[in-house]
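Researcher: Please generate the 3D structure of the following complex. Treat every line as part of one assembly.
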Amino acid sequence: MSETVLSVRNLGRRFGSEGDFVTRGLRRVGLAPPPAVVRAVEDVSFDLKKGEVLGVVGESGCGKSTLGRMVAGLLDPTSGTIDRPDPGGKALPMQMIFQDPFSSLNPRKRVKTLIGEAPRVHRLTSPAEAESYVAELMERCGIDPSYADRFPHAFSGGQRQRVGIARALAVQPEILVCDEAVSALDVSIQAQIVNLFMDLRDEFDLTYLFISHDLGIVEHISDRVLVMYLGRVVEMGSVDRIFDAPAHPYTRALIEGVPRLDRRRTVYAPIKGDIPSPLNPPSGCAFHPRCPLATDLCRAERPDLRDMGDGRQAACHHAEELTKEGEPQWPATQTG
Amino acid sequence: MTAVLELRGLQTSFVTPAATIHALRDLSLTVQRGEILGLVGESGSGKSLTGFSINRLISPPGRVTEGEVRLHGQNILALSEPEMRGLRGRKIAMISQDPMMTLNPVLRIGTQIRDALLAHEKLDKAEVRRRAIAALDEVGIPAPEDRLSAYPHQLSGGMRQRVAIAIALLHQPDLIIADEPTTALDVTIQGQILALVQRLCRDRGTALIWISHDLAVVAGLADRVAVMYAGRIVEEGPVDDILDAPAHPYTQGLIASVPVPGQRGGRLQQIPGRMPLLTDLPPGCAFAPRCPRATEACATMPALTPVNSTRAVRCVHPLIKGAEA
Ligand SMILES: Nc1ncnc2c1ncn2[C@@H]1O[C@H](COP(=O)(O)OP(=O)(O)OP(=O)(O)O)[C@@H](O)[C@H]1O
Ligand SMILES: Nc1ncnc2c1ncn2[C@@H]1O[C@H](COP(=O)(O)OP(=O)(O)O)[C@@H](O)[C@H]1O
Ligand code: SF4
Ligand code: SF4
Ligand SMILES: [Mg+2]
Ligand SMILES: [Mg+2]
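Model: Done. Output below.
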């Protein structure tokens, strides 16, 4: 589990236009407002090791899907690089699995075509083997191969997700980017799909970028976790460090706020304030308007992502104070 | 003391020439003043329909075909539609997953609060404004005076849900039915909403039905839990009893499928298969095709049977002694 299969460096993606020729001209002389540019992802760097699950968490709009789509090759970055040190001759090394596989599965194609099409085009199977190739994949993903002639609408949400997974696996990818892949499923079905992901990892040494707003699932499935806030990485490290001793106040707020089966009659004392607009990010540390530890330094200067010495990185001026032993408990939730 | 809400043998059906589907069967529930009841179950189990049935908002071809909905002891199914309109929004309020089901996108927040106030009360202009500001303030919306002139799309999802809650609270209802109100929200915003409803139920004695497929949210919020499966309640009781010692195999399966914090990696326990369609129910217990304890005896529908004075279960082979149906 040491071979690097993907290196992401200073990745960024902006949306929005600089405006047309006239607008740009007017802006130069101060007669038009500055361009509305959303920095959906900024300066994100990480490595993916073979067979590892990197969880990506953060609030809605923080850039998780944008990052995932760039990694999967579905969206071009506006800055930075994505390198695969060993391309290994795979036709389609990255595949993406979405929240609602229904919208990504052509409703007019039978399941056997949906799964079998790409491997045929990329000559991963011979026409003679095609049928058994599809049947094997369906079996592996827990769909009865006798359903091969059905159309997507004839499946439940959980089954459609399995079809989506089988289709992604059909091209023998190295990396699966899962964007909220289990979020729309009921818990009992969610557990089936999570187990399938873990089995596939063991079997094929698959590597995952696992995007989810559900921290419970991310904690369960990930080896490492990347926490995003307003397009930037605010903390990244092993799942144990992140969940047992978060170094960033935002990570801590997220984790403390997660409802848990063993927390009854919880008195929620949640983090205040709304998610800020990425069109108009706060000065300094983007989290400062909601952060109980914010100081003047935080309002003025954006903290760099720093090594914390335990294989973890955090972007907070006061991260050391948060990880110190015997520090007073964060005032989030308590059970009463 | 009479309960705020009492459901007695409620049945809601969709009757078409082709078929009759009973979407809710034999539904009985009680919610006391100040109590929070968590109604859980997977999608399609009938949680939302239960809320709509209580509020008499099932549209044809669906209707409540059997049973009673008692509000403070009075069967509201027997009321005329105008009488029912006098209750809706005043005695019983609803909050839905999507606040835009409550909010009108083309009206200012202030206008919508005014309309909701004037639907049940006679107030002058100044009084309306005062009440509207107080309502927004109560749900933690900063600078409420300024928000009155805002349109819904100018607010974030969490703020919109707060406005919907503020409107639900305007007339100090006795009962609030909240249908997955935080499912679409981020965990940080969800925490804010949970803190808010908790405080309201405690301070005002409002009875609350919190509908959710998320057991963990219910664990932190509810006093009692009712678990639904395929249109029926399969288990009901105090939150600690149900979550620490489930009696129904389905409840146990649900609890076991939730990842345990701190136990990382490893396989999750899963319930095989999925919930049957209402048009395709097995005879007897609907959970039987997925149940590890199923026997031939389960082909006859078990009744919801008391385990003790506070809890009940619908199962032939329950997981705790003395609860056999
Ligand atoms: N095509 C686009 N044009 C303009 N802005 C965009 C586009 N796609 C994304 N954005 C913006 O980029 C930011 C990040 O979006 P993204 O979809 O990556 O968020 P996310 O973290 O996946 O959120 P969620 O949890 O809601 O899925 C948001 O502010 C979004 O509005
Ligand atoms: N208009 C309708 N016609 C027929 N069946 C319906 C209708 N509305 C809901 N149902 C069925 O009733 C059941 C319960 O639905 P619902 O209460 O929305 O479930 P939940 O809220 O638990 O997800 C489902 O099987 C659903 O398909
Ligand atoms: S840098 Fe300051 S405002 Fe930002 S998270 Fe750290 S303490 Fe809070
Ligand atoms: S009645 Fe039988 S099938 Fe149904 S839950 Fe109980 S043991 Fe399982
Ligand atoms: Mg997304
Ligand atoms: Mg529902």
